[in-house]
Structures are given as structure tokens and as C-alpha cells.
Design brief:
7-stranded mixed sheet, 6-stranded mixed sheet
């Protein structure tokens, strides 16, 4: 598959810049795509020293395999998956470690590396380094935090989960965020209420646990109807349904940048200088060099993973992040296991952020939000399409409040797929054909229950935001930017060439545990925070919650 890249603005942020990208990995391919999308002239060459990727130009980037990870075991994609946790998390739904059929860790490293490179350019740095191992750990940070939390349950997770199979042989996924929708769908198929209730919790918890041991009666009920019958029933009950599509691309951009015009149609004018309270990151005085985004303020109105992870990475780059939460706070703060007063999983995405409670349905509270926007650099959200505009909080509306604002939407489909299903991780995997590419040919196609696209979409959201900040610096205008789960899926399968071979990246069980090509597979994430190999990459915070440290080093 070849990803078609449109430069979606006539004056992209890296116009007139030239970069050389060396490397033969997915990380190098992604970096070339991101730089091209940003307007740069890109030359590609093979790797020189076995590194996954190296970029030279106005700023340099090196992506190594292991980075600061010790032990010398991470030397390629498969070993990164084995040592750093993705192989274990992806395999949870099947009861044993399984390798991902695509180069997920290297793809994530390419996005993280690209984000660091753009941030270095923005902050006046000359060199940035990261690694595939650090990217791999970032992709499992929620699972790692939950496994290593002081209150983590010792019981093993049971395997299981979708997809479902219809009577005419169609594999499909369903999605519901409302228990009423879940109940109505299955009740209409004749499933007893007690079974429907027993299935709701594992179905909802497949996001944080990567497995879903659903009652067998649900699968049996699905197998009793054709897919056409199930689709009609889903439409009547509000269930989102999607069959597993073959791999394919809509040929869209990795991210989109555009000027955010004022509501009346005039261009949002900005003189190009921050107020005295928001100095350029490169000019902030510190005893040590400031991080590239120091001095910037990000307002994040995010739910679940995609937008919160994007804002978390911006915080690791030095930005001050303020979460916009509903009255009573984010309900996910209380999801067990806990570390101190907060959920371990929640901390993995939101550590170090402050928060303000705002009811966006209340006109007075929306005015409060606009006041916060007035002094912010970035407003980032992952609300459903059209929500911001309906509430008078769209890019054009907020540009009228702050003509220097970068408005970022981390969406599901970026309005590129008419009739698309609900824009959630597993539905996006089903719709974009990832189910067939993630598993070897001797296994049925199935999306991973590891939140691959929510995480990769979050990484891409951070990269999009930094590109938009560079665009603002270049044009002196407010910027509207969008990334999506669809774009993340297309990046992941950019160089896919059919289904993986039988047994591809499947570990073997030996006397000492699971092993893949001689490399021991980490199957206990709780052990990572105390494993000396991971010192300097993963640490315990003040509440003894495992924390994946920043993946970048700047100079």
C-alpha cells in the first residue's frame, strides 16, 4: 500500500526546508511521510549504521532501536514488541503472547521522532534522539501502570473477545457506549437479560484490559442471523456495526492544517508575537535549557485515550496542560486500580496536568471556556464531529476570541468516509482492514484488543499540534488542524504487503517462559518498573505508580 500525501495548505510549515532521511525501517518511512506532509523537500537513502532512522537537515534526529534501554536485546521490531510489552498485551485476548503482524513499534517511533524533530525546530534545538524501545513502552503505558499499581489485582486476565461471526460467515465488530443500546441489541436477538448484563462489563473493559471474555451465548446469537439481518437490527437499536474490511486506503493526508478564519469570514490576524506571559520557548530563561514547548498553554478537552495522550506528550515537551473536565471531574479518575487518589491508567495519560470543571452544555460555562481560550496557545479536543461547532466552540468561533489560537481536533474519520461507523479504536481497525494484517495467515482476521489506533492516533495528534504551532509561527495566523484514527491506520499499513505468513512473530513456550527468536518475552508488565534494564526509561512516581518517562533527549 502507498499512502497518498496531500499538502493541505498552500504554505506548509516546513516549506523551503530540505531534509535527508536515512533508514529502511517503518520509522524512516513515517518520518519521510510526515516531513513531506509538512512541506519539506525530502531525500531518502538506505541506513548507514543499522539505525532504524536518521534525519539530517536544519535539525537532526536519530532513532535507535534500544535507546537508553539496557541489555542489548532490542535490535529490531520483533524484539521491541517482545521485550517492551506489546507482544504480551496484544496476546491477552488469545491467552498467550502474540506478535503484531505490522511494524507497530517502529511506526510509533517514527511519529514520536517526527514530533520531537518539529518541536526541536520550534524551540531552537539542533538535535533530538529517541528510540523504538521508548516508543514501544509509550504505547503500553496504560497497561504497564495498571499492572504495576500497588492496588493491582493479582488474578490473571481471561482471554476472549470479538469479532463476532454471522450465519453467512461475515466477521464483524459492534460498538456501544450506552448500556441501553447494548441491552436492546442483544435482547432483540433473544439473549437472556442475565447474559446481556454479564457481557457488558468485559465488553466495556476491553479498552483498558485488552481482552473481553464475553459469554458464549452472545457469539451464538450472532451466528443465528445473517449479516444483513444483524445490520438492520443494529440500525433499529442504535448499535454501531462494521464487518471486517479488506486492507485499503482512502488516500488522504496524515494530518490537515488550515487557517482558522473568523466567524465573519475574515482571516484571523495575529502580529506573530506572544504576550509577555507566553514567551517563545527558545527565549525562556532557565538554569537548564527549556524544553521546546515551555511557556505554551494547552487546553485539552479530551476523553478516553486519543486527545489525553496527545496532550500528555505536549506536556512532556514542556507545555502547560489544562484539562477541561465535566462537572464532578473525569469519571475515569476513579477506575481501578488506584495509585493514591487517582486511577493508575488515568495517570498514565494525565500526570502533571491541572484541571478545570466546565459544563459545555451551560452557556455561562462556555463563556468561561472562551476566557481560558483567550490566553491559551492550543485548544485540543476529541469531541464527536460537529459538537464544537454546534456549541459555538469551533475553530472559527474561537479564532474570534484568540486570533493566535491553534485549534486541534483528534477525530475518528476526519470526514473522509461517508457512512463510517462510530469512530472508536476497534471499529476503525475493522473498517480499515487492520484485522487481516495484524494476525498471521493461519489465524482468522481480528482487530487487536490492544488500543493500537487510539494510541497511535494520540501520538499523531501531538505531532499535528506541533506542526500547527510551526504553521502559526510561519503565517502569523490562527490554525485549524485535524488528525484522525483513519490517518493512524493508514500510516500503520503504509507498506503492508498482504497477510503475514503462518506463525509470523508467534513466540514459543520453553522451560524458562515465552521466547521469540531467542529473546525472552515480557509477560509480566509489573516487573518492568523494577527491572534494571528499564532504569531511566520507566520509573515509579511518588505514589509508586509506574511512569514511562519522556521519549526524547534534546540538545
Amino acid at each position: 500500500m502507498t499512502l497518498h500525501l496531500d499538502r493541505t495548505t498552500s504554505d506548509p510549515p516546513l516549506s523551503a526546508n530540505e531534509f535527508t532521511v536515512r533508514g529502511d525501517s517503518a520509522a524512516a518511512d513515517v518520518l519521510g511521510a510526515l516531513l513531506h506532509q509538512s512541506g519539506a523537500s525530502v531525500s531518502r537513502f538506505p541506513a548507514e549504521h543499522g539505525e532504524p532512522a536518521h534525519v539530517s537537515g536544519p535539525c537532526s534526529l536519530t532513532v535507535s532501536w534500544a535507546g537508553p534501554l539496557r541489555g542489548g536485546q532490542v535490535v529490531d521490531e520483533a524484539s521491541a514488541q517482545a521485550v517492551c510489552g506489546p507482544m504480551h498485551v496484544h496476546g491477552r485476548s488469545q491467552g498467550s503472547p502474540r506478535g503484531l503482524g505490522l511494524d507497530y513499534c517502529a511506526t510509533a517511533a517514527g511519529v514520536i521522532g517526527g514530533t520531537g524533530l518539529l518541536a526541536a525546530l520550534f524551540g531552537g534545538r539542533s538535535l533530538v534522539t529517541t528510540s523504538v524501545a521508548q516508543a514501544a513502552l509509550m504505547t503500553v503505558s496504560q497497561y504497564l501502570a495498571a499492572a504495576g499499581a500497588p492496588e493491582a489485582e493479582a488474578t490473571a486476565l481471561e482471554p476472549g473477545g470479538p469479532p463476532f461471526l454471522s450465519s453467512d460467515g461475515v466477521l464483524f465488530e459492534v460498538e456501544a457506549l450506552d448500556p441501553g443500546v447494548w441491552q436492546a441489541f442483544w435482547a432483540g436477538l433473544g439473549v437472556p437479560g442475565r447474559v446481556i448484563g454479564a457481557g457488558w462489563r468485559p465488553f466495556q473493559f476491553r479498552y483498558p484490559t485488552a481482552t473481553a471474555p464475553l459469554p458464549g451465548e452472545l457469539h451464538a446469537a450472532a451466528e443465528g442471523r445473517t449479516f444483513a439481518e444483524l445490520t438492520a437490527h443494529a440500525g433499529a437499536t442504535g448499535m454501531s456495526i462494521c464487518h471486517l474490511h479488506p486492507p485499503g486506503s482512502t488516500g488522504g493526508p496524515v494530518f490537515e492544517l488550515a487557517a482558522a478564519d473568523l466567524a465573519g469570514g475574515r482571516g484571523a490576524a495575529w502580529l506573530g508575537e506572544r504576550s509577555s506571559s507566553m514567551p517563545h520557548p527558545a527565549s525562556v530563561p532557565h538554569s537548564e535549557p527549556a524544553l521546546p514547548l515551555s511557556g505554551l498553554v494547552v487546553l485539552e478537552a479530551g476523553r478516553r485515550v486519543q486527545a489525553p495522550l496527545a496532550a500528555h506528550l505536549l506536556g512532556l515537551l514542556g507545555a502547560t496542560v489544562i484539562r477541561v473536565e465535566p462537572p464532578g471531574g473525569d469519571p475515569l479518575r476513579g477506575m481501578p486500580p488506584m495509585c493514591g487518589n487517582a486511577s493508575a491508567r488515568w495517570l498514565a495519560l494525565n500526570r502533571g496536568k491541572s484541571a478545570v470543571e466546565i459544563d459545555i452544555k451551560d452557556p455561562a460555562d462556555r463563556d468561561r471556556l472562551r476566557e481560558l481560550v483567550r490566553t491559551a496557545d492550543v485548544f485540543l479536543h476529541n469531541w464527536a464531529p460537529g459538537t464544537a461547532e454546534r456549541l459555538g466552540l469551533g475553530a472559527h468561533d474561537l479564532a474570534a476570541v484568540n486570533p493566535a489560537l491553534v485549534f486541534v481536533h483528534t477525530s475518528g474519520w476526519a470526514n473522509r468516509l461517508p457512512g463510517a461507523p462510530m469512530g472508536t479504536d476497534f471499529m476503525a481497525q475493522a473498517r480499515t482492514g487492520l484485522g487481516a494484517l495484524l494476525r498471521p495467515a493461519d489465524e482468522p482476521p481480528a482487530p487487536s484488543l490492544m488500543t493500537l489506533l487510539d494510541v497511535l492516533g494520540g501520538l499523531l495528534g501531538a505531532c499535528t499540534t506541533v506542526a500547527a504551532l510551526l504553521q502559526r509561527e510561519r503565517t502569523g495566523r490562527a490554525v485549524r488542524a485535524e488528525s484522525s484514527l483513519l490517518a493512524a491506520a493508514e500510516l500503520l499499513q503504509m507498506n503492508a504487503n498482504g497477510r503475514p505468513a503462518k506463525g509470523f512473530r508467534r513466540p514459543l513456550l520453553g522451560d524458562g517462559g515465552w521466547v521469540h527468536d531467542g529473546v525472552p518475552v515480557t509477560d509480566d508488565l509489573a516487573s518492568i518498573s523494577t527491572d534494571p534494564r528499564f532504569a531511566g526509561v520507566v520509573a515509579l512516581d511518588s505514589d509508586r505508580c509506574p511512569e514511562v518517562l519522556t521519549p526524547w533527549r534534546f540538545r
